[in-house]
Fold these 3 entries.
Entry 1:
Amino acid sequence: MRNLLLSSLLALTLYACTFGHYGRLKPNAKSWVTPPSSIFGDNFNSFLFKTNISVYGRDFSGLLVTKQMSPKDYRVIFTTELGMKLFDFEFRDTSFTLHYCVPQFNKPKLLNTIREDIGILLMNDLKDKKADLFLDAKNQHDVYRVQDGKMFNYYFKEKSTDQLVKIEHSKKHVKKIIFTLNNYENGFPTNILIKHYNIKLKIELNLLKK
């Protein structure tokens, strides 16, 4: 009996840890709504970030530039502050091109993870999708849920400011990655933090100019 009780308590604890966060979201009467607009805007020239990528105890610091070449075509280049290129990505609609990558990043799993992180941040693929709309437990955020293959992205938009403050990338209700967007100026977050929970990877972006 005691073992059965302990097993039940453990199961409830695991259930709460796994499902509690999203289980507290309240469905909105509206469904299949348009997802939030990209934080970069539909038409922009370029953004320059002072950047630090921390992966498995190694730090890579430099500058990351995002440039819109044409609608739905984005170039993302990460260099050292002295100008040595570390990687060069191109996102075109639903396709991806790797133009260059140093050996330190040219590992399939790591490269694919960073590519997916930047793709989620660009929000380019949201333009043709619909979202389920929720409210958080404290009614402070509108939460847009969009399916991304076998994963889900949750976009937290602060009701008082109408600003996108967080993106959560999850699988089976478990948070895998959190994107935190802070210190908005002229409609754009000047500090962005991307933190992984299943691997030791963190990306910090601080806006220098746009």
Entry 2:
Amino acid sequence: MVTPTPVVVSVADAHRHYETRAGAVRALDGVDLTVQKGEFMAIAGPSGSGKTTLLNLIGALDRPTSGRVQVNQKRVDEMSAAQRAELRRDAIGFVFQAYNLIPVLTVIENVEYVMLLQGRAADMRRKAATEVLEAVGLGDMLDRRPAELSGGQQQRVAVARAIAAGPALVLADEPTANLDTATGDALLDTMWTLNRERGTTFIFSTHDPKVMERATRLVRLRDGRIESDERR
């Protein structure tokens, strides 16, 4: 019997509405989405299509107005703010456009930081951080600070930090947006390798055609709805 691939994300009839001075905004309007372990998926669409809103719901940064959002078998829509913070800490890695590295910490200390918050032992933190930094090609830069790195190197540190604790899911918001073509390609190669070798699940929000080309699944949003869902 073939063992089914675990489901990491399940979104069912998710709506997210906002009230503004101009009236109600339907940022998401009935989205259904299931993501299995090990996917390398991109979410694309024009500005205002709902990409960031959907990523925020999956990342437990927000809750839907109605509908169900489940991450790592846990109902995000039923959680308190404290419970969502705990889920983000323990099960979700984030890669932001702005890197969000802590300037006073070294490279390895930045990568260890999430594991420190989780209460892991120092030797375990150091071992996991060293291994993942070597995997992203920064094994000789452990003691440097973010200001001593190029933009591409800082983004690789951000990727290492996102995956070092072994999260069920990594969310990357426009990870190549601030990088030149060669650096962006190298970063995608790094994430692709981590996906293939470690089985890390990646979901990207992107406008970058190269990210869309590399994704093994491309979900396009328009006006808060899924317009297409293509597996390669």
Entry 3:
Amino acid sequence: MAGCSTVEGVFGRSGPALGTPGFVQGFLGGVAAEEPRAALVGRDVLAAGGTAADAAAAMGFALGVTLPSRASLAGGGVCLAYDPRRDQAIAATFLPRAPSVLDPGSDRPAALPGTPRGLFALHARLGRLPFEQVIAPAEQLARFGTPTGRALARDLAVVATPLFADPNARARFARADGTPLDEGDLLVQPELANLIGLLRSQGVGDLYQGGLARRLAEASRTAGGALTLEDLRSTLPQLTTTVSLRLGPDVVHAAPVGGSVGAAVALRALAAGASAEDAAGAARAAAAAVRAGADPQAVLEGTTPVGGALPPLLGATTGFVAVDRDGQAVACAFTNNNLFGTGRVVPGLGLVLAAAPGVGAVAAALPSVLLISNAPLRAFRLATAASGGDAAPIALALAAREAMAGRSAADALAAARPAESDRLGRVSLVHCAGYLPRDPASCSWAADPRGHGLALGAD
């Protein structure tokens, strides 16, 4: 048996190569997402030796194909990432923002697309596999088709009548008889596949300042969105350090956006013995304060007054988490600011345009993500993302509290919540009670039983 290691050293590693599913033997980490096929894509990337950031880029692009109602590649979002090598957490913020000037001729003002550049920036910082490799599965899903998932089918059932007023949306999401695609129906998106193929071969920058940017600007005008080249060029993700608070020996990391800060404030309130209702109120107040311009770290520390009210928010968000075997972790939440954004599909590119926030009745969404690490151990403990409008922060905080109290991820998500968050909140969670990479056997992962997601890993 001792000779086996010698043979491997002389002739090289046997088995699949790096970048091929099966490369990782034993514990590979875990993923949880609100859309099953995106979770499968993320799991395969981890099995191929990819990092959590590789898996996140792959899953984010896959969601643009399998759940474009909430995570179009023309939308945006926010991600938290933890790098155990440096004991460093970063926030990547690429929310879909309104154009600098609204074209008076646009009847459905569109937001600027943040997702492609945002995921590219995150991958460039923490990825291992080539970017073109990790987004290739999304291209294949779009080109050869994927069965319509339950989450997408239910979103279509809610908005089919106004959505199908757009002939491009109707051609993409309707059956031959004009009814919306149902669960299991094959969804083929050749225009979107061609776009992802161009991003893979030419780079995502082309969508912002190259030939693809010109095509998007011109075609968005046809779709009533009227994006400009100047605004597309200036659409850049922000990679910053996280805002944080201490919770016992651990550090709770939040992104500097309202939903994430609100979730962290709610978790701290719950840890101090507050009721779920009081913690939910604290989360809403903190989110409103950040949205009104208060310093996120000051809100976390309780050194600035919080108050105000959030506008009515749609639960048009989705999220996922990914953790690799080395303890690198990513939690992301995505949004179009409305189900199917503007309700228009860009002709020739297949993109569902996100809705410009702050225009008409469209309010900016409330993406909610948290990460928990331990600085002395340089180790990861928990990653979670939630959707559900203003119910998301408290749903996330309650699930995180249950996990940190010693419950498995599945039990933490199944625990009761206040009525609104129990009805609307959807949480994806990975928790390693003994910390990672120290104790892989302590890790568990789960997708919310209230939703239609999937959690996967291997040990």
